[in-house]
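Side project, low priority. Logging it here so it doesn't get lost.
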Amino acid sequence: MSNAPTNVSEHDAIAKAVQHYIDGAKSGSGDDMKPAFHKDATIFGYAGADLFGGPIQLLFDWNDESGPATGLQARIARIDVADTVATVRLELDDWTGNRFTDLFTLLKVDGEWKIMNKVFHLHA
């Protein structure tokens, strides 16, 4: 097992994948988000008392319905990488008036980082 630090380019590639997601939120277009996600990705979290979960298409549809989040502020709080897997914590403020904490798991698929799962917390 190697204790060598992760290559900076891997962090940059992961951040680039997450940026597609952020750009899609700002534009209000699920299609703009799609490059960030694997086709079989999932989403889970609570919207109030209700569990919101299933295929990632649910996120794309919600984003299309919610419209552009022109005031969105996003910050990658943490990236952890272990060879072909990674986790990202993303803080989002003013996504159409809401604040979210997103946790992503990513997998390097065919040389590209793809979000496999999004779990979110909607702040009160």
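Brief comment: The two ends are 42 Å apart (CA to CA).
Revisit when time allows.
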